Amino acid sequence: MRMIKILSGFLAMIVMGFMGQTAFASDNSSAQSRTLIIYFSQPEEMKADAVDGFSGASVLQKNTPETGSTQFLAQMIQKQTQGDLFRIETATPYPRQHDALLRVAEKEQQTNARPSLKTPLPDLSNYDTIYVGYPIWWYTMPMVIYSLFEQNDFAGKTVIPFTTHGGSRLADSLQEISRMQPKAELITRALSISRNDISDPDVPTQVEQWVKQVQPQR
């Protein structure tokens, strides 16, 4: 009888230990980092042969419905990271016509405007890694991206920028993000793809390799 009690106690200790390990694993699983992909993308109506170095918000004609080039990259990043997608939209919509959009973007920059976001961001406390995508307009970020970084706290977050552009690559965006969010961990190995190259067949592979290099392993 004593031997049975000893064995029963030993088995109980094993079961309790197993349950404790299970609970620990469950807690760890729930604590796994989450990824958010924030992007601003404005498809344009533009002639196929039009080229300029000012706006990187082109429309990707091969997709239906129309998809802005920055949105196209955001969707590929989301597919690889399984993160949450959030599209920035402004309270006042931008024009779809290319020349009109350029004029509005130029005026916003000259007046140092801060366009309002139509929808608030998700609760950033739920995320550790935040990708932020935007076109380059007039050699800098759109003013709504300034609104994003000035009106929200990214402290302690890993911020990973990606851009589409018409020739200006990242422009001054890394310096500006660092200035506005000095307590964020800014990944400077940002992705920058010309809008003229966005439909190239090697872009998905390029994005996949980049995400593997910059996505934190937690």
UniProtKB/TrEMBL annotation:
Transmembrane segments: none annotated. It holds the Pfam family Flavodoxin_4. The keyword Flavoprotein applies. The keyword Nucleotide-binding does not apply. Gene3D superfamilies: 3.40.50.360. Residues 67-190 form the Flavodoxin-like domain. Residues 1-25 form the signal peptide. It comes from the Bacteria. Keywords: Flavoprotein, FMN, Signal. PANTHER family: EXPORTED PROTEIN-RELATED (PTHR39201), FLAVODOXIN-LIKE DOMAIN-CONTAINING PROTEIN (PTHR39201:SF1). NCBIfam families: PRK06934.1. This is Flavodoxin. It comes from Yersinia massiliensis.
